[in-house]
From TrEMBL:
One annotated GO molecular function: thiosulfate-cyanide sulfurtransferase activity
Domain (Rhodanese): residue spans on this chain: 27-119
Pfam families found in the cross-reference section: Rhodanese (PF00581)
InterPro entries: Rhodanese-like_dom, Rhodanese-like_dom_sf
Organism: Ideonella aquatica
Name the UniProt record assigns to this protein: Sulfurtransferase
Amino acid sequence: MKNAMDLVMAAKARITEVPAADAPAAVREADVLIDVREESEFAAGHIPGAIHASRGMLEFKLSANPALQARDLKVLVYCKTSGRAALAAVAMQEMGYLNVRSIAGGFDAWVAAGQAVAKPEQPNFG
């Protein structure tokens, strides 16, 4: 019986991962950057310019948004450490997307490399 890590390893064998050092260039080159973490993770900080589509809702959000339906979009996905992103990239490939890559090491690698993080402003009621 397979476990989650078995599925992630199989997914990683089918996708292209961008090394963390090359991630800033990959972000600039992408037509769309998708954060597949949970809403609370995204709200705590994300890569600037990313849109949120949690792993569990990804296929539905892609199908519902006409701007994301072109199968030739250059898509870059990421999660916390790269497991969910690998699964998401495979799902997108199965949906017919032709150019999907993920960031090796995910958001944690992005932060560790000292890259910019966007954090929504909290209201000040003071």
